[in-house]
Amino acid sequence: MTNIISSIALLALLASSPTPSASAVLKIPITKLPPSDYTSHLLHTPNSHHPPRLTSPSTPKSLSSVLSAHRHRLLRGVTATLPLEGGNEETIVIRDLSNAQYYGTASIGTPPQPFQVIFDTGSSDLWVPSSSCVTKSSNCGAKTTFDASKSSSFEEAKPPAKTDFIIQYGSGPVSGKYAVESVELALDFKVEGQTFAVVDGTDGLGELYQEAKFDGILGMAFPILSQDPSSPTVLQSLHSQNQIPKSLFAFYLGDNSDGELTLGGYDESRMLDFPSKGEDAINWVDLLSPAYWLTPMDSIKFGESTVASGK
User: Fold this and answer.
1) 37 contacts 70 by C-beta, under 8 angstroms
2) Of the four listed, 62, 127, 141, 273, which is most buried by Cβ atoms within 10 Å?
């Protein structure tokens, strides 16, 4: 849950300037998963180049019964406007289930094949299941899988580029092959030549992956956490290919309602004090290192009582 809490407060900044200046931002509405679907514990010790852990909930429940109690719908539309020069923005709805986990749509290939992905601030890789995952892994049967034969832009990764993908989670490994493709967020923001992984080994994630609503993961952390740090992340590609004005993103998490991920800027209408304080409404905090979105904490208070202090 640490990652979810930190995401609520986080305006993630990769660029040197806090103020976006180009003409387009991308807003991705996000959906939450219920606590019983909370399969990714995405914050790990930031002292080495290790991937985040994926753990099971402490109190097992029947995931099928929980999921069947919810009706899901995918919405699309502009829910708020970031006033940038040119006025262009896109919104992708990110689905919400009981304030626990957030996921939305990313499309891969030509023509685009849509997937539900977790926008994960604790990792940097993009992976989705391949069509062979259904036969090679026992928990892939209900997933949307990527069919390379139906994409005219698909390329397998070839040496000297890295070809084998493997990431170790707490419950076990996920493995597959690297490839290069077009990746689309919303309907208008596309990056070409994006390295990603098509995986067929997901048994390490167990039954929770089978029942969860996401197909794959789109990492939002720094390149050093990637299993292939030499290849740009999706966020880097969006910026370098002039799809977003800054390598900056911000989360707005709804309370049992759809939230929003903004890429390339931030949504001023989501900030209570922005009309009166302007930029002073934002408290910019330095990260401990360019890896995880990890910030120092001086103290924790409940009312006037200090319950923890880092001083």
Assistant:
1) no
2) 127
How, if at all, do strands 24-33 and 88-91 pair? parallel
pLDDT over 60 at 144, yes or no: yes
Q: Which residues of 202-219 are buried (b: 16+ CB within 10 A; e: fewer)?
A: bbbbbebbbbbbbbbbbb
Name the burial class of residue 250, with classes exposed (0-12), middle (13-18) and buried (19+) by CB atoms within 10 angstroms of its CB. buried
Q: Which strand (E) or helix (H) includes residue 276?
A: helix 274-277
Burial class (CB in 10 A: 0-12, 13-18, 19+), 31: buried
Name residue, tokens 């002039």.
Answer: 242
pLDDT (average), residues 223-236? 94
**Cα–Cα–Cα angle for 294, 299, 305, rounded to 5 degrees:** 150
Going through 71-207 in order, the beta strands assigned E by DSSP cover 88-91, 95-96, 101-108, 113-120, 126-129, 155-156, 164-169, 172-185, 189-201
Stronger pLDDT, 181 or 74, i.e. the higher one: 181
Instruction: Classify the phi-psi angles of 183: left when phi > 0, otherwise alpha if psi is within -120 to 50, otherwise beta.
Output: beta
∠ CA(125), CA(127), CA(128), 5° rounding?
A: 165
Phi, psi of 78 (to 5 degrees): -85, 115
- Residue 200's CB is within 10 A of a number of other CB atoms, namely 20
| Entry pTM | 0.73
Task: List pLDDT tens digits, range 244-285.
Answer: 888 888 888 877 777 888 888 888 888 888 888 888 888 899
Cα separation, 172 vs 177, in Å, equals 17
Cα→Cα distances 66→126, 182, 236, Å: 27, 35, 37
